[in-house]
Request: fold
Amino acid sequence: MLAQANSSAAVSLPAIANTEPAPRDWAVVRHATPSDVRALANIYHEVYRGTYTYHEYLDPDYLAHDIESGLAGWYAVEDGTAPGEIAGCVSAKVDPIHQRAYSRGMMLRPAWQGRGGASHVFGECFQDFMANRPGIRLLYSETRATSIKPQATCEAIGLHPLGILPNKDVFFEARESPVLMAVYSSAAWATRETSVKIVPELEPLYRFCADLHRAMRKDAVEIVAHDAGQVGHPAAAIDIQATKQKYGYTHYAFTCQKTGESIELGVNVQCMNAEGLDIHCSRPATARVLLSSALEYLRAKGVQYVEGYCPATKPGLQSAFLDAGFRPLGYAPAWNLDRRTGRFVDQVVLGWSKRFAIGATALTKASERLAGVLGLDRDA
Reply:
């Protein structure tokens, strides 16, 4: 079993009621080591039957580096009835700049699925992870929504839905719409920027999030008129640079030749989604042109989903996203550190999807309400 965890947990996760049909006594959880990496990579092969689209997790060298980095927590789930047999894994990764952790979920090999106790194992790993990362203000996940169970497990350990990402991922060669979820520490609210400036299109989404988090109810909220601008752009004014990277990723930079302002993001070629958007623009007008240009170019390349985060303190930039063809998909409180102020600023998740309809996606009651706020429907 896991060693006794440090008592100074940064994020308090409630105990999980074991609602599984069978006890957890078959599973033994321990910290993974570099010697486990081939078995861990094989889990991804087995679970997704060779279709997993994030290829770095199929590379033992990448996994070894991830484990040794000190910025990731990896747990091996062993079968206590078959000593040494790794039946699954749990992992999470730390962003030390913004003091948050990303849960990369739990994997159980097919032969061990359905035995029961998975929720308890998941919670045990997260309790240990957060207890030993005292600087973390929040833990978040992009939770699969092909069934209610993954969301219900996250809700059981305190995570709330913040956004829905329509048809972002590809698993088993089919597009899925994960739910962005997070749990916060008290420190996250103590260090958060509470002045919020948003355009009217974002107010319903902000109100939904504020209803879930009592600490947001005293915010100083200003609704700023949408500053619409011209979206069209002369193609010759934009320089586009594409750089192929490992594991099937391509990095794109779109630069305004006149001003040098730019945006950058990465495309996963296996599932044709784009994320990790960085904006280096001093003016919303330039950001509007670059975002529009990037979206037009990537759509022509076959990209199916594009995602970016925008501060909830910059209504001009929010307008630029909306004018360029992006839609609000989520609201993430206290997400990014503003180095100038030392405060953590809310971020609005904005995105474009080839299909905003979420089809047979299974949502909890809270996530279903969020889908209604976002205007996502069930049409095929």
Summary: Residues 47 and 109 are 6 Å apart (CA to CA). The first helix runs from residue 37 to 47.
